[in-house]
Write a structure and sequence with these properties.
The protein has 246 residues and is mainly β. It has helices spanning 19-28, 114-118, 180-183, and strands at 12-13, 16-17, 33-36, 57-60, 65-69, 78-83, 90-93, 96-100, 106-112, 125-128, 135-147, 154-155, 162-166, 173-177, 189-192, 214-218, 225-226, 233-244. A hairpin with a 5-residue loop joins strand 8 (96-100) and strand 9 (106-112).
């Protein structure tokens, strides 16, 4: 235990922490680590109202998030501190491997099989899973990699185009790329998605964003076809962050 803390005299004994005095001081100030099954609520009728003092911390054991009381004991305000995902160096979910670039920016890489690519109009694929109630996925950048199998190209409707969306294929496109020349190329290639054109914004209802997955979708009118050898695939690489929704 470090000995450079600035503590009240009754909490120190020589160069050692007086544990019992420290605990008593925590109790007297209604401080501790509390748990709750779900996100806490605020106010005089909120979670641990009348019990949790200012500075008390709370662990949401359902969504694995950390909060601190930034108001009073009588009327706690539980302010989000961090998600458990920010403390994992690497983890794997169904069809997706995610690794942290640091404690905030993450990278998800998803391999789209040949069959998934040819059904992407009807069946969008999750790139990032839903983050939990009170949070949303904030996409920062997306790059797609066409892995050409060496036999024949994809074909399809003119203007083949891929897009990132929240929730599912029915919502508005956030950013797009992978145009026709890329999809139907006869060589492996990379393509960087772009945001909507300057002057064109994206308005999407909170209900379609909060706790919703980030998906990749074929945003043109017809499915991608061709590639009779069924050996072309696409890697989707997305940089993103998880943010609390207000």
């Amino acid at each position: 235990m470090p000995t450079t803390f600035s503590l009240p005299n009754h909490q120190s004994f020589g160069n050692k922490l007086n544990t019992w005095a420290w605990l008593k001081n925590m109790m007297n100030n209604n401080l501790g680590i509390l748990t709750n099954a779900g996100a806490p609520t605020n106010g005089t009728s909120g979670t641990f109202a009348g019990l949790a003092g200012p500075g008390c911390v709370l662990l949401d054991i359902t969504n694995k998030n950390l909060y601190i009381n930034t108001n009073t004991k009588a009327s706690p305000t539980w302010t989000f501190l961090s998600s458990s995902a920010n403390f994992s160096s690497e983890f794997t979910s169904t069809g997706t491997t995610e690794s942290l670039a640091n404690t905030v920016i993450k990278t998800a890489t998803v391999l789209l099989t040949n069959a998934q690519i040819k059904a992407l109009r009807a069946t969008p694929i999750n790139v990032v899973a839903a983050p939990g109630a009170g949070f949303f996925v904030y996409p920062i950048e997306c790059i797609v990699e066409l892995v050409y199998g060496g036999n024949n190209a994809f074909t399809g409707a003119a203007g083949d185009n891929l897009g990132l969306k929240w929730q599912d294929g029915t919502t508005t496109t956030i950013m797009s790329g992978g145009l026709q020349a890329f999809i139907q190329a006869t060589n492996s290639a990379f393509n960087k998605f772009v945001d909507p054109a300057v002057g064109s914004d994206v308005n999407i209802a909170k209900t379609a964003v909060d706790n919703k997955p980030l998906v990749i979708h074929n945003i043109t009118g017809a499915e991608i076809a061709g590639n009779a050898a069924n050996d072309n695939t696409i890697n989707v690489i997305v940089k993103y962050a998880i943010h609390p929704s207000l």
